[in-house]
Each structure stands twice: as structure tokens, then as C-alpha cells.
Amino acid sequence: MNLNLIIDALKNPNGFFVATPLSTLCAVFATMFFIFTVIYSLKHMQGRTGLWRYYIYLLATFIATLGIFFSTTFIVLLVLWGFLGLLLYLLIAFGRREGTPEAARKALVIVGGTDVLMLLGIILIWKLTAGSSGLSGLLFMRIDSAAGIPLSGTLSIVAYLSLASAAFAKAGAMPFHTWVPDTAENAPIPVTAYLPASLDKLLGIYFLARITLDVFQMTSYMNTILMALGSITIIAAVMMALVQHDMKRLLGYHAVSQVGYMVLGLGTGNPVGIAGALFHMFNHSIYKSCLFLSGGVAERKAGTSDLSKMGGLVKSIPLVFVTFLIASLAISGVPPMNGFASKWLIYQGVINSGGPLWVLWLIIAMFGSALTLASFMKLIHTVFLGQPSEGVKKVLSEKKKRVEFSTVIPIMVLSILCIGLGVFACKIPFAECFRPEVRGQLDLPGIWQSGLATLMIMTGLVIGYLIYLAGTIKKARTVAPFVGGETLEKNPEMRVSGVNFYKTVKDIGILKVIYRLADKKLFDLYEVSMKIVAGFGLVFSFMHNGLLSRYILWCLIGLVVICIVLI
Amino acid sequence: MTIIYLVVFGFFATAVLGLVTSWIDRKVTARVQYRVGPPFLQPFIDIVKLLGKETVIPAGASREVFLSAPLLGLAGVIAVSTILWVNQFFAEGFAGDWIVIIYLLTVPSLSLIIAGFASGNPLASLGSSREMKLVIAYELPFILAMLVPVIGAHSIRIGGILEAQTTGIFAGSISGILAIIVAILCVQAKLAFVPFDIPEAETEIVEGPLVEYSGPALAVFRLMKNMLLFVLPFFLIILFFGGMRLNGINLLWTVLEYVGIVAVITVIRNTNPRVRIDQAVRFFWGPMTLIAAVAVILALNGL
Fold first, then answer.
1. Which of B50, B129, B147, B283 to probe by mutation at the A interface, max A CB count within 10 Å?
2. Domains in chain B: how many in total?
3. Which of A144, A287, A302, B213 makes an SS bond possible with B218, Cβ 3.0 to 4.6 Å?
4. What global pTM score does this model have?
């Protein structure tokens, strides 16, 4: 009986919480990730202290997320959003690296700071709609009552940008992205797979979609800004990811890069691109959490996530390797996975968006995809396929422990979803869910015939296998690898670890300068602001240096000023 | 079911034509080097010979990945060839298949890279890393050059590009000429021919990713490369020359265009030394991207 009450309450369009098709879909995905995270944490977080707090935080995050998806008033959304920022800080603090406190602080500052901007945006919207007056009007202002604000005056543009910056910080788009790689490196793996990889993307892009499509009327100028920010995010993040040494940090940079695709799709302004962006949001959460969870198993096996110390793990965890491979192909957008389906929609949207610069955005998006592929090839080699390092050799020589059921179930289901959503992309009724959000008709200029392409690829595989059978593949024998007559066991320094694969790219002229500046954290907004604040502190500490003589000086100066003013 | 027939037909046609093209390439190279050159059936005999050789798997390699990497590459090439043949003869295709082809064309390189990684051999790993860097180097100007016909035809379907060329082929415009030059050099890199055969430099890293392959697995890889040797000029002809027209005098033009592209590739192959990987990356991200960008800007302005 209680369930019926809740469902009826959700269907009531005047209540505090209303279920739209998009919200329902997001909530279903959030539930799925919550269940997977809990199952995965059962094994992964075993033996840590204070686990009861950890599960409470997970549950609270889940409930807050549901609240945000279903809320209809701005204030409820803001409060829950802030709540989530606090929970993010608390969850990151479960990490056991030395950079953990700093990373948690950074996440709290960036997400919390943009919270304040969100409040500013809400107040400006209240002022602009000039509907209900007084504080109660602000408290109960509904999102759909503030519909169609034109982006003409300064106030509305500032309102939109403030709200958008909150969404960007949550999702991890530039320029507020810097907390994501640090969190990915320092927080425990289930937290990383739960929050920055999946839930935050769903939340951030959901909010961005709501304000872009419902609350404000976009102009082509603002669309261009969105597309530019998206494209810059794509390319800059993936170039940073190419040269990382830490597996989790690398995956974090890729999470930032994929958000660029979503922002790009939302900025196209036409239904195809927007549908592509929303579809990409769901796909990304699936394959990103699969990547993080599989990478977490690899990290546990090898004992480290430093890329130069891993390698050769495919013999000990073959199933994890397969899921990692599938998720890597999905994130690179190789047909027929789901990543390709959503990227295809986004490209169609960009091409149809008009304006003079669509070629530039398309080039950046497609090139970013190629770089993503290259980066994941490096990762697959360095973690799984390459020659094992000393530490890993010890692990391999131990008795092979089967990976636990609870760890394997989430990644297997996620990778099956990757393939399934890709192969059946044209049959999923996503259009029904997106149609109310997407103004105008969602007639795609033709559907991506995923079934056809899969059939072609399957037939090709069968032909290849038939060629194999015609040969002598059944009687294969094993020999030592050929390295010009030497033996690999006697020469451990011949091991190619894969960390320096992209040193060539890093050393090219102008890129060398950019990478060096990025190493000095010049592009990190948080660090730059920290330096500015520290600068202020320096000024103040000069004025208040604790010696009595300085304070007497200030008193004298103040007295002189007062005398001059009053006499 | 018709799809399966089309795929099998596409496979056989592409395989035969690819092997013939490989013979043309080897014969011309031999003539340039004052040799006699192989007989006509040599590429076919090579594939059949490899099928009978022993398969040897290196210790330390992951067996399943090692053996399935060639299949992945072959499947990718077969898919691309099917789409191209279908567009050529049935003028249907499906929407947005330009994007699909560009993405599927990375699959053969991808399979080569995975093959190198799965061999458990440091030489193979190095060769694969070079292949990866080469791929990210030439992808940028390649996409730019392939965008020129799309801009000219205002359509992202191969069928649309073909239809737009019934009035005039894209190779006639200035942007088309620049784009073709860039495209042929990128195709050179895609096929890993000199001067861009950095991943498989025989004298440096002993065949690179393929060092541990023999027998049917190597046969599949060779077949994949020869099919790619046909598919890529075919793609260029569809995009820039209006496809293969098989009626009357146009048949001669088609054969000339195809042989012309292959001849250019062979001549470049025989007259240049191999470049280093950083030179290649700088070359593709520097002058090539600039020329391709100029071509795109010209195409956007209608030239």
C-alpha cells in the first residue's frame, strides 16, 4: 500500500517530486550502480575500519541522488546537491594514499564552491521570472515554472553560466575538472567507480540538460560557447591522459574527456545531438565504472597502480582482462559497442548544427576518439598484456586464487550491457525517454544500423575462423620468444613497460611547453586560486606580523587618519 | 541472409582484387630494381603456403588473444569492403556510413597493435607502440582530407557523396586535389609502406608486431593487408572520383584511376627511405594537417 502512495505521489505533477521519463531512466541507472558498488565493496573494502560509516554514506548518496533526479523545486535540488558534495568529501576520505586529504579537500572546495554559484544562479532566476515575491516564492520556485528565459540580458547570461558551472564541476568538465583525476588516484576504487565515474556524470549532465532545454532559451552564441568548452575538454583531457604514469589517474582524465562529448552534444542545439549527449551520458557511466572496477581488481592483484610496475596480468585474471578490453573498445568508440552508437549520434548533431565552426568541433571530437583509442591500447599493454614486472611475477607464481564472485558479477554485467546497448542501439526506445526533453521532433536522419554492422563483423570473424581451420591451427606448439638470439629471462632490463610509449608525442615542440606548464599545475584553476589566496595571506601576514611595534604603527596611522578626517 | 551473401561476395572480390594489386605492386617494384619480379599467381600461392606452415606460439603470450587478433583485423576489413561494395552496386548503404567506415578502418591497425602486445616479446611491444603513434599521427590529416567530399556533397552518406559527383567529380576542384594528395600520403601510412613502414622496420625491430606470427595466423594478417591495399584506393575512388563506373569508356577511366593510385603508392614506396617515428608524427601533424585544413577551408567556401 505504501508503494502505491509513493508512485501516486510521483505522478502528481504538482508535488515536490515528479517522475519524468528521463528522471526515471537516470534513477534506474543510479540504482544499478548503487547495487554494483555495494556488491563490489563487499570484497574490496574488507578489513578497513569504520566500514559502517562507509555503507551509510553510500546509502545517503544514493537517496540524495534519487531526490535530485525527481525534485521539482530549485531549493530542494540545491540542498541535496550540497549534501552530495559533503558526502563526496567523506567518501574520498576512505582512501589510503598519501594524497587523499588533499584530494578530498580539493573536491569539496570545487564542488562546494560551485554550489555557491548555483545559489547565485537560482536567485537570479527568481529575480528574472519576477513571479512570486518574497522568500516563500524563492523557496518553492519550481524548475518548470521558470521556463524559457531568453538569454538576452547580462543577468540571464550570468544566471545560466553560474548554474552551468555547477553542472560542469559536478560532471567534471573544464575548467572545473581538476578534482576528478586527483580523486580517481586517491579514493578507493568503489568510490571512484560510484561517484566521479557514474553518478556525478548522470547528475551533472542531467542538470545541464534541464537548464539548457527547459529553463533557458539558448542562443546560437551560447551554443557555440558550450561546443567550444566541450571540444577543449575532449582534446586537452585526452592529451593529458596520454602521458600519465598512474593507472587510476589516467582513467580519471579519460572520464573528464568523455564529459566533453556530452557537453558538445548538448551544445549542438538540435534533437539528434542532444539525444546523443544523453545517450552518451548513460553509456559513459556504464563503461567507465566497468573500467574502474576492472582496473581495481588489477590494482589489487599487482599491489600497485603505478604503470611501470604492472604488466602481464592477463594470465592470472583473464576474465577481468576481457571485461576491461570490452570497456576499452566501448570508450574508444569502436563499432558495434555502445560508445560508437552515442558518438555517431553526437557527430550527426554536430554536422547538422550549422554555424561556421562545425568542422572544427567534428575534427576535434573524432581526433579525440583516436587518441582515446591509443591511450587505452597503451593501458591494455601496460597492465595486462605486456611482460610482467618483478612484483607481478611473484604474484603469478603464487597459487592462482580465483577472483571472487562478488567482484566479477558487476563487471561482467556492465560489459554485457556495453555490448548489448551497442548491438541493439536502434531498437532501444531511448527516443521515448528523450522526446519530452528534446524540443522538436526526434527524427534521426536515418538510424545507425547496429544490427547490420554486427552481422557483418560476425560474418567476417567466421570467415577468418574458417581460414584458420583450413590451416594447421589445431596443432600449435609453444616456443621461447625470439629476441635476436638472447633469452628474455636472463635479461630483465629488456622488458618494455609501456609507460613511455607516448614520449615521442610529449617531446614535440609546442606540446612539450604545454606539458611542462601542466606539470607545474598552471592550468589547474584550483591551484591557481590557492596561490592567489595565499598571496592575499602574504599581504595580510605582512601587516599583522605579531610584533608589537607594527601594531602600534597601525594604531598611529589610524589615529592620524581620524584626526585629519574629523578636524 | 542476403547480408551474408553480400559479405562473402565482398570478401572474395576484395581478396582476389587485393592479391592482384599486391602482385602489381611487387612487379613494379621489381622492375624498378632491375629484377624480374614474381609470377602472377605468387600472392595467392604465398597465402596458401602459409596455411600449411606450423603455428608457433611464444611462451609468455596470451594464447587466445594471440590467435584472435588476426581475426579481428580481418573482420574489420571485410565489414568495410562490404559497405563499399554495397554502396557501389546498390546505391543504398545506410545513414552515416562515412563515420562507420572511418571508425572501422582503425580496426585493422588496432588488431595489429593488440597482436604485438599479445606476443610477449619486447620487439613486438616496441613495434606496436610505433604503430600506435603512427595511427594517432595520420588520423588527424586523414579525417580532415576525408571531410572535403562530405562538405562538398552536404551529406554524410556514401550514397549521397556518390550522387553529388554525377555532375562533377571532387578531384577536379582545388580542395579536392589538395585533399587527394594528403589522402594518398595517409593511405601510405595506413598500409605501413615505406617511408612509413616504421612499425615493421625489418632492419630495426625484425618485423615488429608480427615477429612471432607464422602459419595460418600470419596468412590471415597478410590477407588483411592485401585486402586493405584494395579497399583504401577503392574508398578514395568513391570519395573523390565518383566511384567505379562500369559503363563504356568510364570503365577505362576507372581502371586508370585505380592503377594510377596504386602506381603513385608504389613509386613513393620505391623512391624513399624510412623515416623515424618522431619525424613521421611531426610530418603528419605539421605540413599535412596544414594542407588538409586549407583544403577544408577552401571546400567550405565552395572551391
1. B129
2. 1
3. B213
4. 0.88
